[in-house]
Write a structure and sequence with these properties.
single chain, 343 residues, alpha/beta, Spore Coat Polysaccharide Biosynthesis Protein SpsA, Chain A, Rossmann fold, 2 domains, 8-stranded mixed beta sheet, 6-stranded mixed beta sheet, 12 helices, 34% helix, 22% strand
Length: 343
């Protein structure tokens, strides 16, 4: 029977709600880790199925498992409750429907030991969903796997969440110095990454797969309004505006690439945080010269002068977004100085 040390090196934090179909496999993927010096802190957030029965059976065979129960209050509160019971200086997140690779904890803890200036490390994730049925999510996984350095993660943070939540390991003192998970009408993990990046926390990924990521139909990010497109846009608007204040040499003025109705609505969120939209850029020739809400529309081949403008790209289509990014760079504009991609 394995036992946990008095001061484990890593605390694995795993919240669960009605996870009877996958919880045993998830837990066992942690118990077989190459690095044995960890504790597994499981928070049952008011499950109504037999999840707890399965967990208690596992706990009897491995003392590294610590089970805590509470009435259902939601993921963010369950995570914070679990953090209060984590004893190790390193926190590895894990979800009840995913699988950690056997060397995950060893490699991530080793990375943080080697690079003490890094506050959070993730890794590559393997997509276990239906690629044809959920092709967009598969592309999202490919996208986050392409972001490995702190610079790549930081510059792309306003597009979508650049990290798979159950793949990260971070230093516990970050939650003590920079705040816990926030509970609100937004994705709790994305809020945490944006907050930490805003505060200068260094992030990285190891270039190896650390997690097999299931994409089940009932995954919270698929069914809860906190993870809708609009929830993402409202959340990141405040962080984007704060970033622009520090990095846009023409603050508070910005040009928005994208003059479509939905794009304008999403970009409008930043005006509530002090930004001023001077005008729109669009690829459609018939839009050029028009005014929308007293703001001019310019064709993309007639960009405002580089020395007078900062562009925020609000185009969601991946291929179009990357084409715009390449075009702006060809025009001599530097990402992070002359433009930022936000959708």
């Amino acid at each position: 029977m394995n036992s946990v040390s008095s001061s484990p090196r890593v605390s694995v934090l795993l919240p669960v709600y009605n996870g009877r179909e996958t919880i045993v496999a998830a837990v066992e993927s942690i118990l077989i880790q190459n690095m044995p010096d960890f504790e597994l802190v499981i928070v049952d957030d008011g499950s109504t199925d037999d999840t707890l029965y399965q967990l208690y059976s596992l706990e009897r065979s491995d003392k590294r498992i610590k089970i805590f129960t509470r009435p259902r209050l939601g993921l963010a509160m369950a995570l914070n409750f679990g953090l209060s019971h984590c004893r190790a200086p390193l926190i590895a997140r894990m979800d009840a429907d995913d699988l950690s690779r056997p060397d995950r904890l060893e490699k991530q803890a080793g990375f943080l030991d080697k690079f003490p200036q890094t506050g959070l490390v993730s890794g590559q994730v393997n997509y276990l969903g239906d690629k044809q049925k959920n092709f967009g999510y598969y592309l999202y996984v490919r996208w986050i796997n392409s972001l490995n350095s702190h610079g790549e993660i930081s510059l792309n943070r306003f597009i979508e969440s650049p990290l798979a939540h159950p793949s990260v390991m971070f230093r516990k003192f970050l939650t003590e110095n920079s705040g816990l998970y926030a509970d609100g009408p937004f994705p709790e993990d994305y809020d945490l990454w944006l907050r930490w990046l805003d505060q200068g926390v260094q992030m990285a990924k190891i270039p190896e797969v650390v997690l097999d990521w299931r994409d089940l139909d009932h995954r919270l990010s698929r069914v809860h309004s906190n993870y809708s497109f609009e929830a993402f846009f409202k959340l990141k608007a405040g962080y984007l505006a704060a970033w622009l204040k520090d990095n846009n040499p023409h603050h508070p003025h910005v040009w928005v690439w994208g003059a479509g109705r939905r794009t304008r609505q999403r970009a409008e969120h930043i005006t509530g945080h002090g930004c001023v939209i001077k005008g729109y850029i669009d690829i459609r020739a018939n839009m050029s010269g028009l005014f929308i809400h007293h703001r001019p529309v310019r064709h993309y081949m007639n960009l405002p002068p580089i020395e007078e403008s900062f562009i925020v790209v609000y185009v969601r289509k991946r291929d179009a977004r990357e084409e715009i990014r390449r075009y702006l760079k060809v025009q001599g504009r530097i990402e992070g100085r002359d433009f930022i991609v936000a959708a």
